[in-house]
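[Automated response] Your request has been received and processed.

Submitted sequence:
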Amino acid sequence: MASRSHVDVNERRLRPIYDCLDNGNNKKAIQEADKVLKKQKDLTCAKVLKALALLRMGRQAEGTAILAAIHESEPTEEQTLNAMSICYKEAQQYNKIASLYEAASKHQPNNEDILSCLFMAHVRLGNYQQQQRTAMLLHKLRPNKNPYYFWAVMSIVMQAHKNEEQKKPIFLTLAEKMTRKYIEEDKIEAEAEILLYLIILELQEKWDEALKVLEGPLGEQLGNELNLRETRLANVCTKLGIWDKVNSIYKKLLNHTPDDWLFWLKYLDSGFHLADGSTPSQEDGDKSAVTPDCSLESMLAYIKEKISEMQDGVLLRGPYLAEIEFLKRLLQRKSDFAATVGSALNLLQEYYKRFGQKACCYTDMKLYVDLLNPEEEEQFVQYMKTNAGLDSSDGDTLNLAADINQLTKHLVYIQLTRYMGRHIKLETEEALSLSQELLIRYRDGLKFGESLLSTDLQYSDNYLLLAVHLLLDVWTKTGDDIHLWRAIVHLELGIKKSTSNYQMKLLLIRLYCIKGVFGPCPALYDGMEIKHIMNDTMGHIVSNHVIRLGHFMEAGTMYATMVRFFVVNQKEASEHLMSSYKFGSFGRIQEFVEFQERLDNALQYHSANTEKMLLELIMQTDRHDSTELAVDCMNVHPLTDSPINISKLRDNRDLTIALCWDPPSLLNSEENKVRSIQEEELWLSLRWTLLHILLLSVMVGKEITGASVVNGSGTNSDESLENKKERTLAITVLNQRMLELEILAKSSDSFLEPRQYHTVQGPFRTRISEFLREPHIGALSSMVQCINYIHKLTASGLEISNPNDEKCWTKVQEFSSKLVVKDIGGLVKDHQGKRQLDSSALEQIVASVETISYLTILAGVCNRGLKFLKIGLTKKSKKGKGPTAPLPETFENFNNLIKELSATTKELHQIASGLDPVFSSLDIASLRLADIPEEEELQREAERLVWNKVERSVQQSSREICEVLHHKQFYLNTLMV
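Generated structure:
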């Protein structure tokens, strides 16, 4: 009783601290904790809560010191352990949670709560072996609790997932034996335990045993999830080739859900296997089982039966699509039975007649239009045109849709004709005429959506998108930007009417970026509410452009948001895993682990993280001290980090998110994806190597001046052997990385020219072609040679300086002068007698600005070494008490290099300033680059809005580039020796 009273007193005293922490008042929480500790000095939980408040206030050193002291004392109180777990979670030090509970469990080996928390700590770390050990301790402690036993079994299964193929059978065999033991002893209590046994059997491909389980009494217990037993049984029978059972199961499922397309595909697969002569099983099946269809005739009869059942009821698409799919497979097999089913033309016409008013009709029918020959295709197009009822070929009057169904039916007709490749064959005038017609239909169709919510899409939105695609076709053929700007204006107008249409926003982002205008893109991107996993699948639509077009501040925000998602995912995924163990959802554990691995190895994650750190080196540095501070804050270990394993990278980009109705032959989806991932992987390798070259160089610079006692020649006579080895290692790894960068550049000849992909749905190229041009790699390589030279001088003395080695400074100057982009004539260029925006100007300048920034950092490293040498010379002169000797040639050469870099920076600044429309007195709107017809006031207003956005975007790019160059100029001014 006294003990309970003591606990109550502690809880009452700690409550104000918890309240302050919950309210975010960390300063008050510290004060409350100090009050408690004055009364009760040994209350460790109060100390931990104080440490938590300190951590949240950014006082890391103080908070960490308190935690370390308490951790060392190995606490066992539940409150203290929970509070320390929270601290370690927020600091992302998950390994310390495990060690905390490990120590507590040694003091209290029979404490079930501590062991459970220890198990979950190992789950968070993915330490499957320790999970198994802890789960078995729990099982021994509470042998009647099944979950603990199966935690151990699942931990063994996950060891099989993690280990190489040779060890998999060992772990899976052990897991199977452990589970079978409980089955034989009739200790199975939950459906999850049966599912785990099935998972183990399936991983070992023991399909016969799995079949026995599913057909036996254990299988009958699988009833919580709809159709779980049936679909698993069908999957096992498929593996065993028992096609009559598979067919019977899916036929039974289709009797209940005749619109499930996956069931239809499985039914047809099994039916064709039986029709091909697969021998039906001889076992006596379930008396209630449905008779399988073993012939083409019976399959057709079943499909017809399902269609006839709907004649007087609700029409479902499944059976009608199944009939077309059945015919497609027959035609692929060149079966004579296809004639019995009917012609593809008749079936497609019938399907269009019944379901043409549904928006999904296009996605259904595009799978089967290739069954038509050219003559049938023409007949089908004419049928759709007539059936839609909007044929305007008899006169100049345009027949407009009378209702939503007619509008949708006509839209499906237009979409399918484009998919068949008919729009591509149109002449320029025909394409522009059709585009104008679709715009009229779009505007007329807006009347049907007047009562829609702001979050709903307008029924006629796809008319606008199709019209824009036609304009882009003409732009691609002619190269005349008037058509692209018209497309942008129409999309801007469309978004005002349909504010939630992400397809319009996606296309607008793409078109603006093609023309070198990034300013409007952040608002469009944020308007799509990109969250969570979409940072991985859709982040590429802006991340490829934001730095390329000179929006450095926005780039920092975007990359930070993307990286934060991946970091948070690591925490959230572990929480999901722990919940799966707690609730026995063993089937989900592998899914969560695979999902976590997918995100950890995501191309977008590694790209965003690398670009974020490179950007920090550009943006957060105006002197070498700030560069070294920025490097220290990065969680990177350049001496020990291995290069990114390209083979493990996962390309999770959704490259088909943008609506496109072009024929597959024009999209080249698979080919473009393969080419794009090759380009992205190589670009990531180049950027990662460049980042590590910079980090290693800064490290070398710090190590050069790490000596404490300097002798006359500028070397450290008392330097330890360990320090010398470390210095040698840093410069060795630096040279290795530089060699890797040069090899990567040489192997990238196929990327020297910018790759072009499909305008709407293709991926966008990287900046690799610009980076591979002569000045960039050459300048970096020469600058690293200078660092090597300085390193050699600081190690061995100025006396070993060599005229040939001094040439490295001149090489850098030569490359530096080439960074000035000579062929940029301003923001506007002439193209075929017309004035157009020069979309390549910004990209060229940004590439030079990045390189000059990197050269400045490397020059700062050289400056550190030369200052170190200068101090040595000064001390030597003081000891001799004679006249001061002139500085060696190296110092003058370095100063000349700094002057050249400074001159290059000034020239780039002048060029970047010249792009600012205000600075150059250029009124973009007055140029009327697109010469859009002034049809109505609304369109004229949209055009003005577009030009204002273009002007503000270019102005923002120019100013941010100039700001970076200004900081680099200041940086260079501090480097003269």
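Summary generated for your ticket: The chain is about 70% helix and 0% strand. The first helix runs from residue 2 to 22.
If you did not submit this request, please reply to this message.
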